[in-house]
Amino acid sequence: MAEGALAASFAVSGTSFQVSSGKLTSQGLASYVQIDRDVDGKGHPVALLGIGDATLSDICQAAEVKTPIGTVVFKLTAGGSAGNVTASSLIIDGEDLVGDARFGTAQIGRDASTLDEVPGVKGDKGKFGLQAGDIEVAKVRSHAWSATGGNFRLKGMKVDVSLGGKKCF
User: Fold this and answer.
1) Pairing of strands 107-111, 70-79
2) How many CB atoms lie within 10 A of CB 84?
3) Average pLDDT over all residues of the chain
4) Cα-Cα-Cα-Cα dihedral of 87, 28, 104, 95, to 10°?
5) Which one of 77, 121, 135, 152 is most buried, by most CB atoms within 10 A?
6) What does the alpha-carbon distance between residue 161 and residue 38 come to, in Å, rounded to a whole number?
7) 78: burial class by Cβ within 10 Å (0-12, 13-18, 19+)?
């Protein structure tokens, strides 16, 4: 868990979800590997991505949920023509991250216990970590187990739950 940050201090659902954005910018990124656990104790290896104050051009989050009547897609979208989405102290526990990235003042291979770019985001002593002073990622695509933030502002938010619905990507 991230020390002092809003990390996944809860059992994850056992269902990963998609996250996408046209563009993500932030002052500060810190990352290290951890294990998220579901209610049955099953571990899911993730890269904890601690992002300072994030601005996203648009977001989409979608999860497939099996129900007695079939597979339902729970989908949340925001941003786009409604304006940017913002989040402070954003923590994403992700399996992967794909996009076109620019990292400013990157430090790769730093001891995870010494990370200081995003307040409160530190891993265990002796573990691999990375951080950057500022980031910009275009065409973001990720599969995540959890996402938390200190203060989400979701302009133009829409939640859609539909049988056999369309995911983000």
Assistant:
1) unpaired
2) 17
3) 92
4) -70
5) 121
6) 23
7) buried
pLDDT (tens digit per residue) in 56-84: 999 999 999 999 999 999 999 999 999 99
Task: Please compute the mean of the pLDDT values over residues 145-156 and round it to a whole number.
Answer: 90
Cα–Cα dist 58/23, whole Å: 7
Amino acid present at 79:
G
Position 4 scores a pLDDT of: 40
Q: Containing H/E element for 67?
A: strand 58-67
Q: Would you say residue 107 has pLDDT above 70?
A: yes
Distances (CA, A) of 148 to 22, 79, 110: 19, 18, 24
pTM check: above 0.70: yes
Helix boundaries (H) for the chain: none
